[in-house]
Specification:
Nuclear Transport Factor 2, Chain: A; 6 strands; 4 helices; single chain
């Protein structure tokens, strides 16, 4: 694939990398000082990851926890800033440890500068992680 030229193209490329379980390549899409936020994270879960290394550490074991199969219902909305998009989607797959289904709804506000993610606010469903056996990030909460 040629280098993504828009925020939407970069985002779609990133989703494919997640499906391919290529976390290092996904992290490479981030600016060094990128900021990832989880405004709805429950108590004990990270709400803010500052910098590319923090994002890498958070997602390092993700494929060991979740086997993603698809991102369905993907809708990317352009904003008045061409470098900022709003994304709606569902991530579906299974939890590796229990083989239970994984089905998470997401809304994200993503900003890209110079072909890299600089801001990613991830509004995922916190109720799903409050169920027993759903430590799907492998991060230190």
């Amino acid at each position: 694939m040629s280098a993504p030229t828009s925020a939407a193209e970069l985002y779609r490329h990133g989703l494919q990398l997640l499906l391919d379980k290529d976390i290092p390549a996904w992290v490479a899409l981030w600016a060094e000082d990128g900021l990832m936020e989880f405004p709805f994270a429950p108590a004990g879960w990270p709400r803010r990851l500052e910098g590319k290394e923090a994002v890498a550490d958070y997602l390092r074991h993700y494929p060991d926890r979740i086997d993603l199969h698809d991102f369905t219902d993907l809708r990317i909305h352009q904003t008045t800033d061409p470098q900022t998009i709003v994304v709606e989607m569902r991530g579906v797959g299974r939890l590796v440890q229990t083989d239970a289904p994984f089905d998470m709804t997401y809304i994200a506000v993503v900003t890209v500068r110079e072909g890299r993610f600089t801001s990613y606010r991830d509004y995922w469903n916190p109720l799903a992680v409050l169920e027993p056996g759903t430590d799907f990030t492998g991060s230190s909460r």
